[in-house]
Every structure is written in C-alpha cells, then in structure tokens.
C-alpha cells in the first residue's frame, strides 16, 4: 500500500523533473538563438561559452547548497551566506599577494585554482566543523557566517589595496558575479571538478536523506556523522570554488534556487531534490540572462539582480521563521 | 480614585474586555484576580495608558488617562508590567534612580538620593546596588524593578503579578511592604495576583474578572467564599479561617 | 554608596583616556607623505600652512566622524533594543548612499549640504523600515535582528549598485561606500561640525535615551514621551550617517565596536558612558586612519577598508566571546 503511494509520488516527481528539464532546454535554445546578428560563428561560440559557464555555475551552486543545508539540517543556511565564496575570493587574493612577494606573477591559472581550493577547504573545515559540532544557535551561526563573509571581503579589499594602491577596485568585480568575463581556460577544469562533486553528492543521496533528519537522528541511525560531514563539506568547498573561480561570488543564488525548488517539487528526497535544484538554477540563470539581455537591456547585471531578489527572499524566510 | 466606565478592548478581532465599569477607591490594596485570559493585564495596561483606549473612559484622581500628559500621570501613578524584559547594562542603583525621572529635570537632588537609598534598603538591594542588572538572578532583577516603581513615589501603584520569580521570603516582604505603605502613607495599590491566598491575606478589596468582564467585586471577606470562588475559577474549594486569616484550600 | 565610590578611580581612567586621544591627535598631525617634524612649523611657514590646510582639518574631521558614528551606533542600539546593530550594518548607510545617488542624478551640481539633506531623508526612510520590521522580530532571539539588518543593508546596497551601474555612476558610489579622509582639506569637512552638534544633543538627552532602552512599557510608565523620543533618535542616527557618508564615505563598525566595549566595562547609563563611547569611536577611527597612512607608505589605504577588517574581527570577538565575561 505505502509502496504504491510512494511509487506514485515518485512518478509525479519524475514528471515534474522531465518538465523542468524541457523548460531548461527551451531556455538554453532561446539564449543561443534570440537576436543573432553579425559573425554567426563568433557570436555562437561566445554564447556557448557563457551558456556553459551558467550551466556549470547553476549546477555547482544548487548541489553545493542542497548538500550544505542538509549537513546543517536546515534550509536557510547556505555555503555563500556562511561566507564560503568570500573565503574563496580571499584565498585567491592572498595567494596572489604571497606569490607576488616571491616574484611568481604569471602562474598557471589551474595551479592557482588548486592552491586556492586547498587553502579554502582547510580553512572552511577548520571554521565550520567546530561550529557544527558545538551546535550553535542557528541565528548565531548565520550571523557569524555573515560577519565572516564581511571580514573576508574586507581582507580581500585590503590585500588588493596593498598589492596595487592605485587600482581602485570597482565594487562590482569583487562583490558580484559577472558572466561576461569567463576564462575559457578554467571552463573545462571547473567542469571536471563540478562533475566529480556532483557524482559524489549523487552517490551519497541516500545518506543525505538520513542526514536531513538532524544530527542526533542520523547518528542514531548509524551514520558516522563527523567523517561524513567533513567529506561532504569538502565536496561543498570544491563546488563553491569551481563556481566562484568561474564568475565570482553569488551570495543568494543558492538560497533563491533551493527555496524555489522546494516549492516546485515539494519533497526532501535527494534523488529528486538534487537534479530539480540544478535544473531550477539553470532556468533562473539562463532565463534571467536572456530576459535581461533582450528585454531590459541590462546585460551585465544578472549577478546584481539575483543578489537583490535572493536577498529579499532571505529576509522573507528569516522574518516568517523568526515570527513563528 | 480610579474610575473605569464602559471600557471595551478588541485585539485582532477577538474581544479582550467587554464593557468594563469599575471604581477603585483611593487608599488600600485592591487585588485583581481571575483565570488566565480574563483580561486583568489588559485592564491594567489601559489604566496605565500603555495601551490606547478604544472605547470608554478611565480617570485616575479625576485625570483622564488618554489626554493627560504622560509625565504628569507618571507623578501620580507607577506601573510595573509582568516581565518587561529590561536588558540594559545598568547598575541596580541607576535603574532604581530612573524612578525619580518624572519629578526632576536633569540632576538628582539630595532628597532624590535619599529616596533611592531607602528604596534599595526596602527591597534588600543595598548590597547589590553597584551590580549590573544583567548579572542578577530573575528574582533579584524583579526586586530591582519593584524598587524602581516604589522610588517613583506615586499615590497609585499598579503591579502586574509582581510575585513572579520571587522566593517566599521576598514575596512576603513585598506584600507586607505594600500593606504598610497603604496603611501608613495612604497609597493606593492595584495589584494583579495569581495566588488567591496572597489576595485573601493582604488585600482590602478583591476584583474578580472572567472572560473580559468583572464578575465580582467587594471587600475581601465577601469574595473569599466558596460559592463566589467557584463561579470565578470553575471548581469548588474550601475556605478556612486559620489563625485569623482566610485561607483557600484549592489544592485538593 | 552609588557611583560616587567610583570617583577617584574614574578620574584616573578619564586621564588615561584623554591622554590616549591627545597622543593620537598629535600623531595624526605629524604622519603623512610630506615630512613634518614636530616644532618645525614654528620656523617654517610652509609647514604651518600644511598643518592648517590639510593635517588639522583631516584630524578634526576624523575626530568628529569617529565620535559621531559611535554615538549614532549607540542611539541605533537603543532604538532597536539590540546591541549588535549600527548604521552601516542595518541599511542606514546604504540608504544614505542611495539618496546621494538620487540627488546627484536629479541635480548634478548640488552642494554637499544638499546631498547630505537628500541622504538624510532616504536614511531616515530606510532606518524607519528596518526598525519597524526589527520591532516585530521576537526579542528572545538577539541575533536575528543584526542578521536581518546585515542582509537588509545588503539588499539596499545591491539596489544602489544596480542603479549606479545603469547610470554609469559606479565610481562615485565606490567613493561613498568607502570611508576615506585623504581628500579632506579646509573648506571640505565643515559639515561634520553638524554631526558634532548632534553628538552633544544625544548627550543632552542621555537620560531619556537610557529610559528608551528599558523598553516601551517601562519608559511610558516613567512618563517619557516614547514616540517622540523614538523619532528624535531616528533623526540623530539618520543625520549623522548621512553627513559622514557625504563628507568622508561609509566607515563600518565604529558604531558597533565602541559602544559594546564601553558597555562591558562601564555599563549603559548613557549619561556617564556616552562621552566614553564618543571618545572611543574617535580614538578607534584616528588609530585606523593612522594605520592606513602607514601600512603602504607612501600610498594610503582608506580608513573604511582598515575598519572593515578591524571592525569585523572585533565584532566576531564580541559575538563569540561574550559569555566569557559574565
């Protein structure tokens, strides 16, 4: 009886997933084809690179957010609200700062990425595992994360000033994501990391279902919590690194996407939630960019718009949750 | 004298007070009793102008509470709400000193300092005078707030379940102090009490409320009777005279 | 019995505090790209000119902005009844920047005073909305209000950046969002004296502000004009923030750090502590400005950047280390 019900639920969810996939493909085609002009091969290549970047970033942000939220057993906390992408940008600048001191300016971007990733992962584990273990009050943890994010951003600005005092870092570049300046070199590399991270998350989907029940319940059901959480945090760090390296920080994209997804699919089962969140992210990013580009004439501002809308969503969730 | 005439209050569509009329004579201790949700605290808030009056009329010593300047009212009437959640890092003496605010412009005079010291002494707070209130226990903080209310030196004192958080010693001390200032200084005390026996032992008059209306009001001896108590609280209880004090045996 | 017994000790602390502030003041006069030895301006008229036109105005501006921002933070904490908020972390500074943007757009040649007035209006609106929402949040969760404020400020900031980006004013916005004293000369900072006057006003109403922090019921019971006092506090916070953002740009965390540290040692009776808070804010900003001048000498790092780091570290310390003290 229950099996039949669950089976029926699964079929319904799979139907929704198929629908979302279709919408995602449609949005992608629209992005590639609307308003084509001039040198067709050149424009198409440019758009393809951007589309690939948006898909990669969408998938990486969606999956990392779902996994992080599940490890924290809470649907409002996200990697970027806790300052992880700011941490990545900080590591990036710090590495450049340290290397320039030794005269290694022109380092291979992939090697650079690996250095950043290692630094960031170790810092993230050192900061967040104790916080999760000590079971901070949720609002204190969120506030600490937001302030850490401010600290990392301030440190980044400070280092940038120390590196080059005449360069007035324009706000947009350091604070908001930009999809117009994607390095093709990094695309493949970030792609490999994203695929690997998503594969691990997918294999762990049943463990994630259990973790979502809360730390105590998960331990009671036989999950080796500490090791599992640490491993999943590394996956999250890898995915955040990949997306941030490609386009820059996106503080509220993850939150926006996952809360949308939960409304659409209405399930906490990760076998559905993970792909659905990834598809939602793709639709939001690619669709948003298409609309901004052709309807509103604000090509480069997708990052800011997502931050604005995502921030309001965060406030709404916080307000509703706080008042409850 | 506190005069309440035709006061009703509705919050979010539900009726909290329904056409309440009541006169609290000057002098003596009047206890407000009744089950949870009877509207006691709301009535007290209206008298103390903490909530805007929706309908009806309330006067204290002839001054309408909705139109008299707040500062003038603060010189004749002090209010202590239940759990006002004071979170400032003030020293106990500083908090109690704010009770003098309605009477002064700027600096405390020597007389004000005397009153502050007396209030601290009265509530067993002299040793804690320099402690920050956020380092006190719940009961100590409650005493500090009561002391501030006393320090205001008003003819009318309104208290909303002030015995919360107090141990037996300090609860008894507070009730005896209220009794004394009513007897010796002619103050008028209107107090919401949770424990019917505190009302029975210390109050001159009892006002009983239920479902937003006053259902009984009179001398303590006329209210502390099994039939009236049952109509207020909904169950029967025995009343005994033990060593000259009316005692309600509501535990059985 | 009461505060009197702290008298002699209090005097020693006051002397130390005043000496520190004076030392920073003198240091600020003599630190900079142009060499300036102490005593040289007696013989060298050029040195005197440098002091009068650049160094002294800059140092005075730092003092005024630092103390005013600290007081604005203190008043904001009183209004929100939460010790972890301040103008730059709850949308006031961002609203002010948005206001300057609007004034610049409508009237590009507006004077500093007009820009400040416009900024004050939007800061007032932004802060009112924040407080209205913050008062609806449950007081049992003290971290919810600052969290709400930070994100609220971020959303307004994103709106300002979006608008600036569209209007090609991003460079200007950058200037308003990063506090910096290097551009301060005589004739370009005097608006900050208004902020200084507001500090005095806050001190003058200190008793009433303290009562405000006791909550609505207690303060009305004591005869305070609660709504009027709320409005006055709002005006003080908005005006100070607008003036500093227009003249020197956003300087974060001063209003958070200075009042919290003072409150740990001296409590929150504002009649006694507000001079300490003002002095502490001035010292903090002066020290950070001097660090900014020295850390990459001969270039300058803006004070806003230095305080972003120093202030965030201190904020984390206040958040996470706060149980150790009580």
UniProtKB/TrEMBL annotation, chain A:
The keyword Cell membrane applies. Keywords: Cell membrane, Membrane, Transmembrane, Transmembrane helix, Transport. The chain crosses the membrane at residues 17-36, 48-74, 86-107, 113-132, 139-163, 186-202, 207-225, 231-260, 272-296, 302-321. It comes from the Bacteria. Its main location: membrane. It holds the Pfam family FecCD. Belongs to the binding-protein-dependent transport system permease family. FecCD subfamily. This is Enterobactin ABC transporter permease.
From TrEMBL, chain B:
It comes from Mesorhizobium ventifaucium. SMART domains: AAA. SUPFAM superfamilies: P-loop containing nucleoside triphosphate hydrolases (SSF52540). It is a peripheral membrane protein. GO terms for molecular function: ATP binding. The gene is yclP. It holds the Pfam family ABC_tran. Belongs to the ABC transporter superfamily. The keyword Membrane applies. PROSITE patterns: ABC_TRANSPORTER_1, ABC_TRANSPORTER_2. Residues 2-236 form the ABC transporter domain. It is found in: Cell membrane. Gene3D superfamilies: P-loop containing nucleotide triphosphate hydrolases. This is Petrobactin import ATP-binding protein YclP. Keywords: ATP-binding, Cell membrane, Ion transport, Iron, Iron transport, Membrane, Nucleotide-binding, Transport.
From TrEMBL, chain C:
It is a multi-pass membrane protein. The keyword Metal-binding does not apply. InterPro entries: ABC_BtuC-like, ABC_transptr_permease_BtuC. The chain crosses the membrane at residues 12-38, 59-80, 92-110, 117-137, 143-167, 188-206, 226-255, 276-295, 301-320. It comes from the Bacteria. It is found in: Cell membrane. Keywords: Cell membrane, Membrane, Transmembrane, Transmembrane helix, Transport. Pfam families: FecCD. Belongs to the binding-protein-dependent transport system permease family. FecCD subfamily. This is Petrobactin import system permease protein YclN. It comes from Mesorhizobium ventifaucium.
